[in-house]
Structures are given as structure tokens and as C-alpha cells.
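As a warm-up, study this chain.
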Amino acid sequence: MEFHEGFTPGIPSECWEWQGKTEDRSSNPQKRGYGRFYDKHGKRNIRTHRYAYEQQHGPVPQGLEIDHLCDNPPCVNPKHLKAVTHSNNWKRTHILRKYILPLVHALFP
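Now compare it with the structure written out below.
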């Protein structure tokens, strides 16, 4: 499967979810749900969110990783992806999951 065949672009503000292979069997729960595909030669296993970011913005700067601002691992919408340090990625995710999401769920059950 080529990258463009694995999702359907939609409204720019919404998630574009990868429909192909994901890392559902990873022993690390934090890696589950991230999309993967092989290059056209079938040799290189590529993470879909990283590929989507690079197609829109160019190579990921050294020392940075791609953060899903939507907190949705299968999302490949470049507008939801940002290159950040590992520390900032972890802090944002931790704050979102520990404080913001419980508040939202409490206010809008």
C-alpha cells in the first residue's frame, strides 16, 4: 500500500485516520495505533505520521520528534503534527491526559 492509499483527506481541522497497518501489537502501549507502511521497494518500514509531516514541512529537524497535537496516533493530517523535543511532547501529552481530558469528560459526559 502506498501512503496516499491509506487514508482519505478530509476537512483540514479534522483527523485523517490511517486505515492501513498499525503498531497494534507493540509491547509498549504508548506505540500502539501508530500507522506504518513500506516504501515502494518494500524494504523500509515508515511511520505514517512522520512521513505526512515530512511531505508538508520537509525533514524533521535533528533532535526533534513528531507530536500529534490531536493526541490521535493514527492521524496523518499534517496540520495536527508538530516537530517538538521529546520533553515537550511528553509534557504536553501528560498534561492533556491527566488534567484536560478528565475535565472535558466531566463537563460533557
